[in-house]
Design brief:
506 residues, single chain, disordered N terminus
Length: 506
């Protein structure tokens, strides 16, 4: 007799609805004749789920029916759909055999309710009323996660007790499951001396040659400091931490952040009567594409000007008179000469290479030991070329760039009065099948894919002997886009044996 074999709900079938909770497999003893009704397998579904049985041999298509369509239905293609909680049997009837499958249907999992946000209003805190206790009387049962959006303004503990820390506004949140409760806090609280924590922020000096300086505490983003000087006859400080000398003496510069006081000690030898006259020379702008400029200054022969900057994190001068950007912002370049201070106001929009979006001044190089040529148009003189990181690229004096390592850096073209820059990004080659990124496709690539799949603890991404992220991308050559699998290794082997014309294979 002709026998038919069916693989019911196997791992390769297409499942619609939620993922099944059982481990599917091939039915044992599937070739059952019409006289028998042996149970050949069991499938567990949740209400609303569907799954299709796959016939693995024979050409005859069976007729399908369900013993109880109120529990589960089956269509002519063998797709079983769970309808209601219970148990039934599904049959596949052939000319000379019948297969019987048990179907168990359980209730569908409840979907998580949509998150609900409840605004509980505003709490005002000050020195007389520096705390509040929140009670969530109508909240559902469960663990509560309390948080403050700004702990320099107010904190909250695990019981919902809010304590003022400093001046400002913040939001207190309580999360219970999918429910969030928020309270807005407005605080005018001023910490008392016994509450304050003092942090020493170092010391610095100001003079007539260097009459101002920037204090950078590297506070977390969003944190606002309140700056003050203990003696404004010696120095003053603005809201950004820029300190300016006013006279001789010592004082402390304080940054108040909640209950923390950052204290910097200042010594000033600045003499306002002896202060050199300031002469504003003008403004210059720096950018990522032109990060360095040399202002057109006429300096008497034999003189030795002293160059300085008000903020080295924005721009710095060198001994040749070039001013080079280091970050974004504004600062002053001071040239002390002949008893006068000559001032250049600098505005910089410079960004480090790794923070820049791609632009017309970005060059991508695909792979190592590759070369591109940079040219300069509209210039009578040839620039002096240099690389900011020769481990990534080197550049010859005719503008030829060679890739040495992966990463992002800059190449500079220095002219007489300015420097132009181009961002260079060296990327790994995208060669289908090149799993080990050696710029060739061979059996070693297939071996690495199999090793990475079989033993990811040794050959996985990030391991010393493992495959790289680019290698994983290159290895995905079979059903491109589904990730790296053993089938990719087999496809690479087939390609090297001439059984596949090209990679990738759809």
């Amino acid at each position: 007799m002709k026998s038919n074999r069916i693989a019911a709900f196997a791992a390769a079938v297409c499942i619609t609805g939620s993922s099944l909770a059982y481990a599917p497999g091939y039915i044992d003893n599937a070739a059952v004749y019409a006289a028998d009704e042996t149970i050949s397998g069991t499938v567990e579904l949740k209400i609303g789920q569907s799954v299709t049985a796959q016939k693995t041999s024979g050409s005859e298509s069976p007729k399908w029916y369900s013993e109880d369509v109120t529990v589960a239905t089956v269509d002519s293609n063998g797709t079983v759909t769970a309808v209601s909680e219970g148990e039934t049997f599904v049959y596949a009837v052939f000319t000379s055999s019948k297969l019987k499958f048990r179907v168990i249907v359980s209730p569908a999992e409840e979907e998580d309710p949509k998150p609900a946000v409840t605004d509980l209003g505003t709490v005002n805190l000050d020195n007389e009323h520096d705390g509040a206790e929140l009670k969530l009387n109508d909240a559902p049962e469960g663990d509560i996660a309390w948080t403050s959006s700004d702990t320099s303004v107010a904190t909250v503990d695990s019981s919902g007790t809010i304590k003022a820390v400093g001046k400002g506004t913040c939001t207190i949140s309580a999360v219970i499951g999918s429910n969030t409760y928020i309270v807005n806090v407005i605080s005018t609280y001023e910490p008392t001396e016994e509450d304050i924590t003092v942090v020493k922020a170092g010391s610095f000096a100001l003079s007539n040659a260097n009459p101002q300086g920037q204090i950078d505490l590297k506070l977390p983003e969003g944190t606002v400091a309140v700056w003050s000087s203990s003696n404004t006859d010696v120095a003053v400080v603005d809201e950004n931490g820029l300190v300016k000398a006013v006279g001789k003496g010592t004082c402390t510069i304080t940054a108040a952040v909640g209950k923390v006081r950052y204290i910097a000690e200042l010594t000033s030898t600045f003499d306002p009567e002896a202060a050199p006259e300031e002469v504003i020379l003008g403004d210059i702008t720096l950018s990522s594409s032109q990060p360095s400029k040399k202002p057109g200054l006429t300096i008497p022969a034999g003189s030795e000007p002293v160059w300085s900057t008000s903020d080295a994190s924005i721009a710095v001068p060198d001994e040749d008179g070039f001013i080079t950007a280091k970050g974004s912002g504004t600062c002053r370049i001071i040239i002390a000469l002949g008893g006068k201070n000559y001032i250049l106001n600098v505005t910089s929009t410079y960004l480090p290479p790794e923070e820049r979006p791609d632009s017309s001044s970005t060059v991508h190089i695909n792979g190592l030991n590759k070369q591109v040529s940079l040219t300069v148009s509209g210039e009578a003189s040839s620039p002096v070329w240099s690389s900011d990181n020769e481990a990534i690229v080197t550049v010859s004096q005719d503008g030829k760039v060679t890739s040495n390592g992966f990463g992002t850096t800059q190449v500079f073209a220095r002219f007489e009065n300015y420097v132009s820059a181009v961002t260079i990004v060296v990327e790994a080659s995208n060669i289908p099948g090149d799993a080990n990124c050696d710029y060739e496709v061979n059996m070693a690539d297939a071996v690495l894919v199999m090793q990475a799949q079989a033993n990811p603890d040794i050959y996985g991404v990030g391991k010393p002997d493992g495959i790289t992220e680019q290698g994983v991308k290159n290895a995905d050559v079979s059903g491109s886009g589904d990730g790296m699998t053993i089938l990719d290794a087999q496809t690479i082997q087939a390609y090297k044996l001439g059984k596949v014309d090209k990679l990738p294979v759809d």
